[in-house]
Design goal:
single chain; 2 helices
Length: 72
């Protein structure tokens, strides 16, 4: 009977470890999503400001040119 309890205890240990890893991974994913959302909002504000300052057509050209910078 004690052998059964020992194996039972060992079988629960990995589950606790996996749960802790899962919670950590979930937290990291949530933080990355929040960071991406913040960058997205900042980008939208920047583009709105560019449109107000430059006008719609020039702002669109600026966006296209900035996209080309990443390709070179």
């Amino acid at each position: 009977m004690s052998h059964h309890n020992a194996s039972l205890n060992f079988s629960h240990a990995p589950n606790k470890h996996n749960a802790a890893l899962s919670e950590k991974s979930l937290h990291e994913i949530q933080m990355q999503l929040m960071n991406k959302q913040e960058l997205r909002l900042r980008y939208i504000q920047l583009m709105n400001d560019a449109q107000k300052l430059l006008g719609r057509d020039e702002a669109i050209d600026l966006i296209k040119e900035s996209g080309d910078l990443g390709k070179t």
